[in-house]
Amino acid sequence: MATVNDDQSKTCVVIGGRSFVGKCLVSRLLKLGNWIVRVADSTHSDHNNRDSDALSTGRVFYFDVDLRNKNSIINAIEGSSVVFYVDDDDAWNYDFFSGYTIIVQGVKHVISACRECKVRRLVYNSTSDVVVESSQDIHNGNETLLYATKFKNIYSELKAQAEALVLHANDIDGLLTCALRPCNIFGPGDKQLLPSLVDVAKSSWAKFIIGSDGSMCDYTYVENVAHGLICAEAALGSRMVIVSGKVFFITNLEPVSSWEFSLRMLEGLGYYRSTVKLPAVVVRLIVNLIKWMYSKTNARNISSSVSVHNIVQLMSHTTTFDCSAAQQQIDYSPAVSLEEGAVATIESFTHLAKDSSSTVLGELYEQSKMEQLLGGGEVAEVLLWRDERKSFFCFIGVASLFYWFCLCERTLVSSTAQLLLLVIVFLYGFARLSHENFSMSTEVSRYVRSVLSEMDMRSYARTVANTWNGGSHVVGSLAQGGDWSLFLKVVVSLYLFKLLSVNSFPTSLGIALAFSFILFFFYEQYEEEIEGLLGILKELLMQFMESVPSSLSNTSTISM
User: Fold this and answer.
1) How many CB atoms lie within 10 A of CB 230?
2) What residues act catalytically?
3) Which of 112, 418, 466, 547 is surrounded by the fewest CB atoms within 10 Å?
4) Cα(489)–Cα(156) distance, rounded to whole angstroms?
5) Low-confidence ranges of the chain (pLDDT < 70)
6) Is the separation of the CB atoms in 158 and 118 below 8 Å?
7) Where are the beta strands (DSSP E) in 184-325?
């Protein structure tokens, strides 16, 4: 075992220093005041995000490196004693070859460069996903867990290979190594977890809780990841026998319901809080169907389905870890609580917040879609059961009229005559019986003899005119022959009306009347959920329609 004295130069290199975790690590190192930091990153990283104060004091230097070129790495780390290796998730194109050359080959080049430059300590930021099976739960997993046999994605598989290389390189040519496995990193600057949640919240999937809301997960605030890396480096220098060559899980030590945490974040950004559960197996089948359609057409734009797939993976399984080894051996404890981290993250993502005009507060004073569709008048109040007593009596009245005219096997003229006869007999008899109560008799008489006002007549005339103009507009649009969607709607509607009216008009009318008192009310009560399902079906249809032309063009190309 190599012996290492405490380094006096305090010069370190942060590979991936402009990445999500890297920026936080660099900032924390500079705040400690006893580090000279070299930020080494690819030429594709953000050059504008540089600490001007640190630059002016000569405590930070920036290097452009290519992880596929060992010489550029040597140029950045030569003369340093510590290397923090933080991968940049955006530095590769999410295909296996690109990921392998940057993640796996990159680690090999970094290890080789550290040996040549006599670097004392190498701390690698890995991920807990290297032990997560795609279809299994983990309850308080610890470092004895083996690598997964079926990884969640390519990135996790490549990170597992890179981590194994780092640990295997321990105590060779004086280089001490260790690795950390943070779980579900989040925080300001996050490009994975919260943006994926927002993508789902903006889509039709937002109406549902995907998977089980009872699953538990660990999360790690980005500041705590940076703190853990610094703790690991310090422990490598003072407790190298028990730390070097080891790997440690780190989290916020606050396991929480996956959906509770996610909805807490989304609510902070003004998004709708889901209440209806949708089984994860259903969503997984839909997402896999979309991905299969795109794979058949060689399409690339599958970002929406990928976001949903990632969220389904996260929400449908319990994934918690035991961090006692990190607490005992590298003195790790979270510097920022989960709640504090969530608040800071929400404040940093205000640009992704939902517009204030569509918040729940605004919706409380806005007419529902069903109320707008029904005109917002008496009909809407009755069919939407605003006054339950009034709606009930209207329903009884409509049912009675339907029975009288449609189910009594009389002609329309006969039914109308008998109904008018009954009404006249009732009114005359009521007046005779209530002759003693002059006020009641007068009130009934005045109600029966009431006439339509000029305003009511104008309103009814305007309604008839609008209906006529609307029909004329539809006919005019059809005559122009340019709107296929309108044509199909009219043809289908007329055909359905023909089927219902010719074959079983009384039955169809009865069902329509009964359902009008049920469907409008039901839709208004579950408007968000129904629209969510319709939106998902629309999204699937659009995905299918986009894939058909590509499939046809590929087929024609092959036939030629």
Assistant:
1) 21
2) 159
3) 466
4) 49
5) 1-9, 43-57, 89-94, 203-214, 272-316, 354-377, 379-380, 384-388, 406-407, 409-412, 415, 427, 430-457, 459-460, 496-515, 517, 520-537, 539-540, 542-560
6) no
7) 185-186, 208-210, 216-217, 220-221, 247-250, 256-257, 276-278, 319-321
- 3-state DSSP of 201-227: HHCHHHHEEECCCCCEECCEEHHHHHH
Spatial contact of 237 and 4, defined as CB atoms under 8 Å apart: yes
Q: Which residue type, as a one-letter code, is found at position 345?
A: T
> What pLDDT digit, counting tens, does each position of 434-466 carry?
655 555 555 555 555 555 566 666 766 777 777
How would DSSP label each residue in 150-176?
S-SSHHHHHHHHHHHHHHHTTTBTTBE
Q: Which of 313, 188, 296 is nearest to 546 (CA)?
A: 296
Locate 86 and state its tokens. Answer: 């933080």
Token pair of 347 as six digits:
């404040």
Element housing 35 (H / E): none
| Residues 91, 195: Cα–Cα separation, whole Å | 18
Mean pLDDT over each residue of the chain, to the nearest integer: 76
Closest C-alpha to 302, from 539, 40, 52: 539
State the pTM of this model. Answer: 0.63
Q: What pLDDT does 399 receive? A: 76
Query: Which stretches of 137-255 are assigned E, i.e. beta strand?
Result: 138-141, 176-182, 185-186, 208-210, 216-217, 220-221, 247-250
- Phi-psi category of 63—alpha, beta or left, where left has phi over 0 and alpha has psi -120 to 50? beta
For 322-343, write each residue's pLDDT tens digit.
999 999 999 999 999 999 999 9
